[in-house]
């Protein structure tokens, strides 16, 4: 007689340990996930006019109380736009500072002289002080030297200012840039662009002062500080839009954003210049 096979009893799969693992992994994954909020900024550039900043001027209509501050960055200038008007363009000369690994020194070159090619090579490679060549990967900072122009054809004159040992531009009691060391001595009171920075100059401060090309970022910060103080009661007094085109180096956009934040505009939006 054939032997009957015993049927194995069916048991339910215990998934509780697996669920316990997922209950631990899911919060960990979510904590390490970055969520990007994407928004579209519809920016309409106002017609060119002089920005009204006269304290005796009549107040704007209620619908025009918003500051609508915008900073446009191009390859040649920075321009501030607000309340239907524009401040004069802040022209600059772009300069590249390289950090030479060969001698641990820094050198500054005009990129137009270097002539950078798409493959990353230079027609005229920058050279360190010891004669060795450097490359684009050793660019430490992109500086914007402020220049004054009298016409579109004028190549511009580099503006200089007095800077501290910490590369902060000095300003006088009228918040104007100090352009000479003449008349300044230990004990003189100077300030920088930072709030409540006025103090007496020490001997070390005096010894380490230097006259160098003025940064266009400092020109921008000085203007933004004045605007923020003047329009502090505007409903969008802390808002700013930074406009840049596709050809603008990201370092410049970051530089503008940093100065805007330091000037009191901490709600920063980005938009594309030229549509």
Summary keywords:
275 residues, 19% helix, Nucleotidyltransferase, domain 5, globular, 5 helices, single chain, alpha+beta
**Cα distance spanning the termini:** 90 Å
Count of beta strands: 13
CATH topology of the domain at 63-110 and 138-158 and 214-275: Nucleotidyltransferase, domain 5
Structural class: alpha+beta
Low-pLDDT segments, ≥5 res? 34-55
What is the overall pLDDT average?
82
The percentage helix is 10-25%
The top level CATH class name of the domain at 63-110 and 138-158 and 214-275: Alpha Beta
Share in β-strands: 15-25%
Q: At CATH's second level, what is the architecture of the domain at 63-110 and 138-158 and 214-275?
A: 2-Layer Sandwich
Order of helices and strands: HEEEEEHEEEEEHEHEHE
**How would you sum up the major sheet?**
9 strands, mixed
Topology (SSEs and partners):
Layout: H1 16-31, E1 70-73, E2 77-82, E3 85-86, E4 90-100, E5 105-109, H2 111-114, E6 139-148, E7 157-158, E8 160-163, E9 189-190, E10 199-200, H3 203-207, E11 210-213, H4 216-230, E12 239-244, H5 250-262, E13 267-272
Structure description:
The chain has 275 residues and is of the alpha+beta class. Among the domains are: 63-110 and 138-158 and 214-275, Nucleotidyltransferase, domain 5; 160-212, no CATH class. Helix content is 19%, strand content 23%. It contains five helices and 13 strands. Strands 1, 2, 3, 4, 5, 6, 7, 12 and 13 form a nine-stranded mixed beta sheet that branches. Strands 8-11 form a two-stranded antiparallel ribbon. Strand 4 and strand 5 form a beta hairpin. The longest helix has 16 residues, at 16-31. 20% of the residues are buried.
